[in-house]
Design goal:
Two copies of one chain form a homodimer.
Chain A: H1 6-10, E1 26-27, H2 39-46, H3 62-72, E2 79-82, H4 84-96, E3 102-107, H5 112-120, E4 123-128, H6 139-145, E5 148-154, H7 166-175, E6 179-183, H8 199-204, E7 208-213, E8 226-230, H9 232-242, H10 250-261, H11 263-286, E9 298-302, H12 309-318, E10 321-322, E11 334-338, H13 342-358
Parallel strand pairs in A: 1-10, 3-4, 3-5, 5-6, 6-7
Antiparallel strand pairs in A: 2-8, 7-8, 9-11
Chain lengths: 359, 359
């Protein structure tokens, strides 16, 4: 006997990337930042008075929202703070998509989107990216002709790391009849020379919702703090109706604010990741493992069929290096590798060198 | 223009109890524990290494689940750890109730239940408690004849503080065709002489889900940690399919575990609350403000119409004492007052004395 709803009974659930307990493992599989959080986070942690844990936290994380609003030059009412990016994705679905409406993505993409649609019980429509990971020219036309209510667009994309420009996104938002959720989980790793900033889109288009997170750029995956930026008509219903009353906790709110306010430290870590990304990409390419151009903190690495990506994944794992291999169609011949510390990246390269010369 | 779903557009949202920033306010309105968390929580906080925040937390809070399972003498697979009790309530709805099915409560009850049902878009059916706050004899018959899929039963009840016995709950679970969620948010404040423990019900009945929280008994409302105890057929779908992948954070998991493991401290604080509850009840009754028999950390206080409960609420607020007044039908003539510190309770009593002698 089961009490499960039909759609829940029929779905399989999301499998998070492996999180080994051992600290001996070089972990390049779930796109965490290779650096610890800012020392300002440590200071904020030390100054927590546990007496404050007795009471409920600010229900909408007011202080943190103010800090985020100032950081982006936008009103605090345009910000919703969530328990990780997952919560914002779920809220967007639960708040805006009827169960007889449809969500769309361009594949390959973050696999959680489909799981969330299954849990909601709505339709989920997959369009395909072009072979070079770009969006098809008729993408928005397809969205509109399929009456898509919500489109998830990770940018930079996962797992490819490719970037859509602000202009391109503006034209999509302008043409699309539904709600466009731009998942900017990896935005902090974009080359700053590109001046990529989508906050202006929120001011221009009432159908754009940006997702930002402290998990990657601020090294706070363990804390579960993310936020959405959007027009009031999008933020308000999630803030006042569909999010859990106290969705983020006192400690996480405080620590995220400390991390945000230490931009100098954050920027240094992003710069380092970009430098390492270039070095890693060059070395992998020279080794016969070409990579997609990435604006993120990971590289999608093409593995020749004769080597076999899954075998390579397993061989690396046996040697204490975790990367990610997806079995989905079209991704079998790739590994997704997070940019790690200089030391971790070197070890990855020397291990790959060994493995490839033995094969 | 709005993208909101019809049911979201039509609902109003939950209004959390006031959380004034000022520490001068005697806060007896949201049932927090008057004591700070255990010193063991402080120690756990000090030993957090922020390097660990860089990585994702344990997705199902494995260490904390193990501790909870040991505490209750039940398997860890019978436990789901959630981001506060709110999340468990929402998950129960999203996982088990189709939008054309119905949830039921016995009123008056915790007002969040209805808001969660509205957000889900399912039916919400209210039965009435008897005048003495007991359940009507035909309650389960009514549930079954209305085809109720999920029934929320807070025990001790809020706002009355009254308790249903384990035997009574067993007979409800046995007879009820749907899922019975017993919301035990206030269970730690029950007189220990009653030996009230519902964990055995979970082993006997596959339709019972218990909700426990660290917010009240362990003084950790600021952290957002609660858990559910139930049969595998209830826990599994929420654990692996409908909860957010990483729903609780690293710090909260660690601190909750520390609090749980210091039972001596926790029990002392519950004893204190019970002693103060008795004193407060006696004093209020002597003052012409009779209270419902409460097994919780609050008292539902009957205010004679001539005094007017809402006026009394406002007068207390003007004097820096926050209590709760609900405007719902049948509750207009009551105040719900959280049992505070000895000092806070004394100040409440002397202020009430002044106000009543002036009126």
């Amino acid at each position: 006997m089961t009490f499960e709803r039909k759609n829940i009974r029929e779905m399989a659930g999301y499998i998070p990337g492996e999180q080994p307990e051992s600290s001996d493992v070089i972990k390049l599989n779930t796109n965490e930042n290779p650096f610890p959080p800012s020392p300002a986070v440590d200071k904020a942690l030390s100054s927590i008075n546990i007496e404050n844990l007795r009471r409920y936290p600010q229900p909408t994380a007011l202080n943190l929202r103010n800090a985020i609003a100032t950081h982006h030059g936008i009103g605090k009412e345009n910000i919703i703070v969530t328990n990780g990016g997952d919560e914002l994705l779920r809220l967007a679905i639960n708040t805006f998509v009827e169960t007889d409406e449809a969500i769309a993505v361009a594949e390959p993409t973050y696999t959680l989107y489909e799981v969330l649609a299954q849990a909601h019980g709505c339709q989920f429509i997959r369009f395909n990216l072009n072979k070079d990971w770009s969006l098809p020219d008729d993408f928005v036309k397809s969205l509109n002709s399929s009456n898509i209510k919500l489109c998830f667009l990770p940018n930079p994309n996962a797992p490819s790391g490719t970037l859509l420009s602000v202009d391109k996104l503006a034209s999509i938002a302008n043409e699309f009849n539904g709600l466009l959720l731009i998942d900017e989980a990896y935005i902090d790793f974009i080359d700053p020379d590109l001046n990529h900033d989508c906050v202006e889109l929120v001011k221009k288009f009432k159908n754009v919702l940006l997702l930002r997170t402290f998990s990657k750029g601020y090294s706070l995956a363990g804390l579960r703090i993310a936020y959405g930026i959007g027009d009031l008509s999008i933020i308000n219903p999630m803030q006042s109706k569909t999010k859990d009353s106290y969705n983020t906790d006192y400690v996480a709110q405080k620590l995220a604010q400390a991390a945000l306010e230490d931009q100098e430290y954050a920027k240094k870590s992003w710069d380092f990741v970009r430098t390492q990304r270039s070095l890693l990409k060059e070395a992998l390419t020279n080794m016969g493992l070409p990579c997609v151009d990435s604006q993120s903190n990971f590289l999608l690495v093409s593995v020749p069929e004769v080597i076999n990506a899954e075998k390579l994944y397993n061989s690396l794992k046996e040697r204490g290096i975790l990367v990610r291999h997806f079995k989905h169609e079209g991704q079998e011949n790739y590994l997704r590798i997070t940019v790690g510390t200089a030391e971790g990246n070197k070890l990855l390269l020397s291990t790959l060198n060994q493995l490839l010369s033995n094969s």
